[in-house]
Amino acid sequence: MNQFLYNFLAWINSWVGSWGIAMIVFTVLVRLVLSPLDFKSRVSMRKTTKLQPQLQALQKKYANDKDKLNAKTAELYKKEHINPLSSCLPLLLTWPILIAVFGAMRMAANEQLLIQLGQILQGKEPALEPFLWIRNLWMPDNIFNTAYPDVNTLRIIPTDQWLPWFQRLSESGLPAMLQDLNLTEASFEGSALGATVQSIVDVMKAQVPFYAKAVANTPYSVPLLGTIPVMYNGYLLLPILSAVSQIVMTKVMSGNQPQQPAANGQPNTGKFMQWFFPIFSLWICLGYSAAFALYWVAGNLVSMGQTLIINKILDNREKQAVLAGEGTVK
């Protein structure tokens, strides 16, 4: 699944000519594919929400008889034709797909970072992937990371992705690079590959200060700010946007649902999750590539749009049901 999604992402890039735009298009298409599951989940959630007054009445009436409460609750769900798990199941089905999407984006980032590394090791200026204010889409959008692939980033690239990279290296610069690294072609075969990767990382440690200085002295045009010399890769905008969009998305998704009180003696997890996800979004987008952060922000925006559309559809269905004398969501 990872490879299939990566090939699809690369195919989009071949058409639009920009990894940043390709990432946005890819995100929209993935969300559209998952939208039927999302719609089914929202319908179930709305039906369950409408039962809250009756459920709370049962909880109050049978507070001292748990068995009776469970039986009456199950009876109510059966009467209203509601499966309590129906709102969760579609979301659970989307998780394997979203994990595969993350894997595909990680594959793309690793491949492009290795291409840039090969250019550095062959004495060439690496072809970075700029997008808007970001100098290199494959590095984090923050003021703590430079635009070039650094040692910490190289360490997390799986060993099995280094061999295809080596096989694609330019033959003109390959002998000199191998000589500088004190390696041979056999160093990229079998069990020797792991030690080879470590030796390349060690070489990068020595070359990083010089290259960082070169990057810092390279002017870069930033929209609205003109041309300024910058060393860092971004301005923290995507991580901040990821947290803000997560907060707005949470409010949009819960906008038409009443706040459900916590059960007796139980903490209210709703408020905790309301702030956990924005903080988590900020944290993960700070550490991962700007491409991933772009996917995260675009995904939140698409989800907000889908939520507004789905709510509009369900509201219209309810109005039609009321006019027809039914009063329930079909």
* Percent in strands: under 5%
* Pattern of helices and strands: HHHHHHHHHEEHHH
Poorly predicted ranges: none
- The helix content, as a percent range, equals 55-70%
Question: What's the number of domains?
Answer: 1
* Structural class by SSE content: mainly alpha
User: End-to-end span in angstroms?
Assistant: 35 Å
Overall mean pLDDT stands at 78
What is the CA-atom radius of gyration, in angstroms? 26 Å
Count of discrete alpha- or pi-helical segments spanning 4 or more residues: 12
Count of distinct strands: 2
Largest sheet: 2 strands, antiparallel
Strands in their spatial order, largest beta sheet: 1-2
Shape: elongated
So what's the oligomer here?
A: single chain
Question: How would you characterize the overall build of this protein?
Answer:
The protein is mainly α and 330 residues long. The chain has one domain (2-235). The chain has helices at 2-16, 19-50, 52-61, 66-79, 89-121, 151-155, 162-167, 174-181, 192-216, 237-253, 269-287, 290-323; strands spanning 219-222, 226-229. A two-stranded antiparallel ribbon has the order 1-2. A hairpin with a 3-residue loop joins strand 1 and strand 2. Helix 1 (2-16) crosses helix 2 and helix 1 (2-16) crosses helix 5. The longest helix is centred in the C-terminal third of the chain and has 34 residues, at 290-323. The radius of gyration is 26 Å and the shape is elongated.
Descriptors:
two-stranded antiparallel ribbon, about 325 residues, mainly alpha, about 0% strand, 2 strands
